[in-house]
Amino acid sequence: MYIRKAILEDAEGIAKVHVDSWKSTYKNIISDEFLKNLSYEQRKNLWNRNISKKGNYIFVALNNEGEIVGFADCGKRESNNIDNSGDLTSIYLLEEYQGKGVGKLLFKQLFLQFEELGYNRVFVEVLEDNKTRYFYEYYGAYLFKSEKITIAGNELNLLIYEWSNIDEVLSKL
């Protein structure tokens, strides 16, 4: 497994992972109709913009064949007004690569990026029914707040977790 910073040519591979992982991760959480309508092309356009945007830090995980099997990104959300803090925006893996340490490698890369940026607090938003929240809790995230959101007509609980010590997280990785 190889982790590197994303380049524009990665948008298509990231889009495929994004759509496919949403379909497996959010099955029975978000409506089947919404998931069925996710589009590789739409997500490719989104990732072209995300990769080009200053202040976004996107990393990809490549398998031995050089295919993108996961990605992660971070930065600072426009809604984040807390000094010296950033946001872990996403970590997604193809289902067959989950539970094999790939997510941990991407997670570490994000926290190294946070350290380089001088952040001392990190936030992540995760749906309550998404089991990834246990991964975040394992690495010391604690619940900062929760709120209700609506996705595809479904009201869901969004949990916002926080890490307040980046060095402590990195020492566990």
Automatic annotation (TrEMBL):
Coiled coil: none annotated. It holds the Pfam family Acetyltransf_1. SUPFAM superfamilies: Acyl-CoA N-acyltransferases (Nat) (SSF55729). InterPro entries: Acyl_CoA_acyltransferase (IPR016181), GNAT_dom (IPR000182). Residues 1-167 form the N-acetyltransferase domain. This is GNAT superfamily N-acetyltransferase.
